[in-house]
Amino acid sequence: MSATTTTQPLVQATDLSKSFGRVVGLASCQFELYPGEVCAVVGDNGAGKSTLIKCLSGALTPDAGEMFVSGDRVAFKSTNDARAHGVETVYQTLAVAPALDIAENLYLGREERKKGILGTVFRSLDKKGMRAEATRSLNELGVLTVQSITQPVETLSGGQRQAVAVARAGAFGSQVVILDEPTAALGVNESARVLQLIRDLRDRGMSIILISHNMPQVFEVADRIHVQRLGRRAAVVTPQSHTMNDVVAIMTGAMTVPEEEQQLTAVR
Amino acid sequence: MASSAPTTAIDEFADKATTMQKVQTLLHRYPWLSPIVVLALLIVIFVFLGQVMGVGDLDNFILPGTISLVLQQTVIVGTLAIAQTIVILTAGIDLSIGAIMVLSQMFMANLAVYATASNVTFLAGQNPVLAVAVGIVVATLASSLNGFLIVRFNLPPFIVTLGTLSIFTALTLILFKARTIQGKEFPDFLGLLGTGFQIGPFTFTLGLLVMLALYAIFSYALRGTAWGTHVYAVGDDPAAAELSGINVRRVLFSVYCVAGFIIGIAAWITIGRLDAASPNVAPDINLETITAVVIGGTSLFGGRGRLIGTLLGTLIIVVLDFGLSLAGLDQAYRVLAIGVLVIAAVAVDQWIRKVKA
Ligand SMILES: Nc1ncnc2c1ncn2[C@@H]1O[C@H](COP(=O)(O)OP(=O)(O)OP(=O)(O)O)[C@@H](O)[C@H]1O
Ligand SMILES: [Mg+2]
Fold first, then answer.
1. Rounded to whole angstroms, how far apart are CA atoms B29 and A117?
2. Binning pLDDT at 50, 70 and 90, where does residue B9 land?
3. pTM for this structure?
4. Which domain holds residue A132?
5. Do A186 and A78 fall within a single domain?
6. Residues of chain B positioned with their CB less than 8 A from the CB of A156
7. Is A45 in the pocket of ligand 1 (CB under 6 A)?
């Protein structure tokens, strides 16, 4: 698949709307994610970033609008629906169960049972298999060592927890990984590690939606930058076409970008 | 920080840990360790006081007869506490456990009682097997009503079960009056689980076997199946569980259904143990089950604990009971000791939950 100008979006949303009572979260919002890219979503607090990705990940059902994955119309009723389409999400709140261990968290909601009668009749979990597989995928990402796979998640540092959540999202043959502010609570070193993790995921062929308030980080890893404002898309630019100040200006409404100067097609 | 081998954060944690932190981490990992230590201490103390100091009748403490009685005495609280543990693991609480158990056993007894006995309702004279089955179904339905109210209307379990505690108690009295049905008034099958048998010098009952079987089955269900993992996850952080694709409401509802089934079995065990069915059995049974769960190291905040801890917690209560009464002490001291243990257990739980890297 060579980079022609007609690369189709992997994930697309058209005219997505979502209100919470009188509060408007999304107002006819457009969104595209192309294969193999990191698309950053930036915007002020309350601009609707989390609402947008919650619709894309099945955690919220939009009031109106359509969503497509690989060109197929989708209507996610749950996060499991989205997962079945290869869309995995790391939420702002991480959504890990602190008292469960790393392996249990990686497989939470999609546990694997033993083969044969033990699994079918006695519903016995394949703990060994899940631990081995969890260890393998964490090692692959270079985030944790083998002996800690049965460590409860609450005994991990913030960066390690984030790594577990990212690994979970990248572990199950997913094609799209959505990250909501993955570095917000992290120090400099841990942030750098998570950014590297994002690049690794992309290099393994995954497409990534990255929500962040951190402009330097966005400009460091993003291929395209989707600027969200008042529940809709204000513009899509690239780190090459615009500066950080431009993006902040678009976020606040001080600057508008004509459609022909935006990057609405694939760059990779 | 050592600069030799590339250490992980876990290793650093182990290097820095003081003895206290090591204990904390150990208890965090194995929450049933504290009840095992308490139980062992109690036994050692009572044996020492009895054999060496000759206090009261405590020299009887290690007689097979006493040990048999202690074990038999655990069956009612011990079985109900299984249901309580599963509910508490979801960060819930069940105050209606005793009321449901009484309702269930009164159904069993009033169905199975000989139609020729005095003062019976028109239900009397049914097949006792059917009576037990109906009783278990009644308990399951009653508890699933709790689950329905909690899940459907988002009501706190404490309030729902406080309400149904009154409702089920009243229902029992309305349906069956306050009449106690004695063992001789119903067929043997109803009292089956009270049947004793000898192994060496010890006497066990079928009820004890059933209770231990339930502990084994539900320990496995909680630790070995996806359902169990989901129960822990829901109690730990319901929002995270939901986002992980777990149907939190369904898990919660299933927990109350399962609890009801266990309460129904406990009702049958209770009839066997007491050789009677009375609406007035064990008025503080709710609190005793919660006490057993808490002393057993399960967190009232949900998501943490093991069923085996609850079994140990039940044993602690009963051993304390026997030991203090053999020592010739007043009941009040037993109540006092339980109170201290409960507060200590909750304090330890708070401390354990602070484990951080
Ligand atoms: N569950 C909810 N109930 C009510 N209002 C909500 C809910 N979720 C979001 N909103 C509202 O929708 C709007 C968009 O919120 P959203 O969380 O998507 O913003 P955001 O861009 O992610 O902000 P932040 O940068 O603070 O994370 C806000 O006004 C918010 O208050
Ligand atoms: Mg947000």
1. 30
2. very low
3. 0.87
4. 90-171
5. yes
6. 9, 357
7. yes
DSSP string of B100-169, one letter each residue: HHHHHHHHHHHHHS-TTSTT--TT-S--HHHHHHHHHHHHHHHHHHHHHHHHHS---HHHHHHHHHHHHH
Q: For residue range B198-243, what is the model confidence (pLDDT) as tens digits?
A: 999 999 999 999 999 999 999 999 999 999 999 999 999 999 999 8
Instruction: Please report the pLDDT score of residue B121 as a whole number.
Output: 82
Given the CA of residue A46, which atom of ligand 1 is nearest to it? 19
Give tens-digit pLDDT for B57-66. 888 888 999 9
Q: Could you tell me if A11 and A74 lie in one domain?
A: yes
- pLDDT of amino acid A147: 56
Residue A154 contacts residue A186 (beta carbons within 8 Å): no
| Among candidate residues A14, A19, A11, the one with its CA nearest the CA of residue A39 | A11
Residues of chain A predicted below pLDDT 70: 1-5, 142-147
The 10 Å CB-count burial string (b at 16+, else e) for B286-310 is bebbbbbbbbbbbbbebbbbbbbbb
Strands A224-229 and B196-199: unpaired
From B25, B225, B244, residue closest to A108, measured CB to CB: B244
Residue with tokens 């290793």: B11
Residue B209: helix, strand or coil by DSSP? helix
Cα–ligand 2 centroid distance for B243 (angstroms): 15
If asked whether residues A122 and A229 sit together in one domain, one would say no
pLDDT, residue A86, reads: 93
* Partner A, chain B 167-226, Cβ-Cβ below 8 Å: 220, 224-226
pLDDT tens-digit map of B159-178: 999 999 999 999 999 999 88
Q: Is ligand 1 within 6 A of the CB of residue A46? A: yes
Question: What ipTM was estimated for this complex?
Answer: 0.82
B31-48+58-351 is a CATH 3.90.550 domain: no
**Under DSSP, is residue B327 helix (H, G, I), strand (E, B) or coil?**
coil
Q: Which residues sit with Cβ closer than 5 angstroms to ligand 2, an ion?
A: A 50
Same domain? For A25 and A145 the reply is: no
Q: Which helix (H) or strand (E) holds A227?
A: strand A224-229
CA distance B124 to A1: 79
